[in-house]
Amino acid sequence: MTLADEVRIALDGKWRHVREQSRRELAEMDLAYDHDLGLDDARERTFAQLKQLVPTGVPAAGFTKDHGGTGDPGMAVTGIEMLAQFDLSLMVKAGVQWGLFGGAVENLGTEKHHALIPRIIDLDLVGCFAMTETGHGSDVQSLETTATYDPSTQEFVLSSPTPSSRKDYIGNAAKHATIAAVFAQLVTRGESHGVHCFLVPIRDEHGEDLPGVTTSDDGHKGGLGGVDNGRLMFHDVRIPRENLLNKYGQVDEGGAYSSPIDNTNRRFFTMLGTLIRGRVSVGGSASASAEVALSIAGRYALQRRQFGPADQEVLLADYRMHQRRLLPLIAKSYAYRFAQNQLVARMHRLQTADEVDAQLSRELESRAAGLKAAQTWHASHAIQESREMCGGAGYLAENRLTTLRGDVDVFTTFEGDNHVLFQLVAKELLTAYASEIGGLDPVGMARFVASTVTDVVKERTAASQLIQRLIDARPGKGDDDHDLLDRGTQLSLFEDREQHVIETAARRLQRAAKADDDEAFRIFNNAQDHVIRCGRVHVDRIVLEAFTAGIARCEDDEAADLLREVCTLFALVSIEDDLAWFMGHNRLSDTRAKTVTALVNDQLAKLRPHLLTLVEGLGVPEHTLNAAFLES
Asked: Under a CB-based contact definition with an 8 Å cutoff, are residues 509 and 427 in contact?
């Protein structure tokens, strides 16, 4: 095997077999986006492709054997992620059907609902996931759609009481879905019990709206032309009592409400936590799209020549500025893939365990939120930079980069706005994963942090012994002894920065403990950028640790050596990007800080000869890139 093969094997991780299967089977499906298709034709083409995925086993993998699936959540997420290498519209369509809609039925429903899962797997029952409203996206607890129980008929009556309560941006809702998993405020006996999920039929067998349901089309979007996003409104739509997905909340025939979780906030976050797979898939799929763009830009840099001495044009890849733009993004993609592999492995263990570990589940939710934010921002930046690195040719649709850019744009708001998600990560860090935790309202969060934070939890990767050993072995303890090429030094700097940022944020919020609501909000609002920074630096640390652990698992020495150089570039560029903090907080002296840029440039020179190997190591087959300028 070549060095690129060994690198790819290390990067593919535990579900390598799924990636290899996907590369073979998806390449045979002709998934290249056709820009000549109109909206309706593009959607029908994507839906036809969705049906071709059923025999691959990926849809069934996401459901337990007891419910008609094969019980391999790691395979399900990895399979969805691989779709993103070929077509993000197909990835989103699959994620909506089997991840979001199917996941809601399995994780929030009970036995009578689970009987639907074989039909969901086979696309005999096509659904949508109706959570987001025009007026409420990230703030799910404030959704306005209501589901009011009528004991005289033993039915729930669903209503959209305001224009802002319209379900919006819902994948599958414009055309293909016949049923929706609708999130609404459950009201019975005049009392609201918070957001619950209901199965609501929306279309008949002829595709016509059912009585009381009004569907409409979101039309053209910035991308994802193959996904039929739409809107839903409900006017006194009646559904049987049994259509409440009742694992976490039940209403009896007379209208009495009961739940195994008494606390409304805890019940709500427990329900959302069971749907974690969607957030994991969004981050991984965004990273996959970035890998495609960087594969295109990397290969282009190895064939395109510009300027040079004595009438000899020089490859783009040989220009230092081009290396500066390209190689750090490739290094970051490697880092995020190792972090994604680790996240999926954790998710798989938790979702296949006999008993749910609440602490580990909370940690998984926090990590998934932070990585999703970091990965989707990276994807948007990497694809845009790739487009620019390919000049005017990159702007032609036939070279795919503009399609990728438009398709991935919305991923930064899928599963929650990224700033809100980093705030969620910070909330968990600042409260040390406390058992009772409120929502994301600023006043409640500030006061809860003020009353609970004592010491910050250092939640490390599974390779904690390796990480600690490297930190302990770092040369010197003073700044002047910092060897910035030493992994232990890098890990220590990242860990120290996170600890300091979290501790200082906690101290700022503690002033809200005795303040009135207005003052508590002001305190939180003034510290919000600091709070979000907690999430950012936490993710930086866990990604570096995941990269380090991934290298340790690499079985080929030459590949491991190359990965170490890539990891060093990732760490150095991360330090360079935040150099003002490290200097301003006396973690690096002026003298040491001045060496960072030179070290980065040295690292670029080391990796330039391996550019093609690193591109091939990402595992995007050249014949599937579908960029015309690489074929000429």
From this structure: no
242-280 pLDDT, tens digit per residue, is 999 999 999 999 999 999 988 888 888 888 888 889 999
Q: What is the 3-state secondary structure (H, E, C) of 312-330?
A: CCEEHHHCHHHHHHHHHHH
The pLDDT of residue 449 is: 62
Q: What is the pLDDT of residue 490?
A: 95
Neighbours of 208 (CB within 10 A): 9
Cβ–Cβ < 8 Å for 179, 202: yes
Q: Is 213 helix (H, G, I), strand (E, B) or coil?
A: strand
Give me 598's structure tokens. Answer: 């030179």
Q: What is the secondary structure of 389-421 as a DSSP string?
A: HTGGGGGSGGGSHHHHHHHHGGGGTTTS-HHHH
Contact in structure between 560 and 551 (CB atoms under 8 Å): yes
Phi/psi for 274 (5° steps) reads -70, -15
Domain 128-272 top-level CATH class = mainly beta
Closest CA to 5 of 554, 603, 545: 554
What does the DSSP 8-state code read for residue 434? -
> Which helix or strand (DSSP H or E) is residue 146 part of?
strand 146-150
Residues 177, 43 contacting (CB under 8 angstroms): no
Give dist(CA 301, CA 323) in Å, integer. Answer: 9
Per-residue pLDDT at 582: 94
Distance in angstroms between the alpha carbons of the first and the last residue of the chain: 28
Cβ 260 vs Cβ 266: under 8 Å: no
Contact 205, 163 (CB under 8 A): no
Distance CA 28, CA 166 (A): 40
Q: Quote the CA–CA distance of 415 and 283 in Å, as a whole number.
A: 10
CA 251 remoteness from chain centre:
34
Q: What does DSSP say about strands 179-188 and 127-130: parallel, antiparallel, or unpaired?
A: parallel
Locus of tokens 């996240």: 343
DSSP 8-state class, residue 513: T
Number of Cβ within 10 Å of residue 137's Cβ equals: 16
The model carries a pTM of: 0.93
Distance between CA atoms of residues 273 and 76, nearest Å: 17
Left if phi > 0, otherwise alpha if psi is -120 to 50, otherwise beta: which for 60? alpha
Q: How many angstroms separate the CA atoms of 368 and 539, rounded?
A: 10
| 338: phi then psi, degrees, rounded to nearest 5 | -65, -40
> pLDDT tens, 162-171?
999 999 999 9
Q: Does domain 3-126 have CATH number 1.10.540.10?
A: yes
SS3 486: coil
Whose tokens are 């609970």? That residue is 452
Instruction: Write out residues in the chain with pLDDT < 70, as ranges.
Output: 432-463, 476-482, 632
| Sign of the dihedral through C-alpha 106, 112, 113, 119 | positive
Q: How far is CA 259 from the centre of its chain?
A: 30
> Of residues 155, 385, 415, 459, which has the active-site annotation?
415
Q: What are phi and psi of 380, to 5 degrees?
A: -60, -45
Q: What local confidence, expressed as pLDDT, does residue 434 receive?
A: 47
Token pair, residue 299, equals: 């290969």
d(CA 2, CA 163): 59
> Other CB atoms closer than 10 Å to residue 377's CB: what's the count?
15
Domains 3-126 and 128-272 alike in fold: no
Domain ranges of the chain: 3-126, 128-272, 417-548
Residue 415 is among the residues annotated as catalytic for this protein: yes
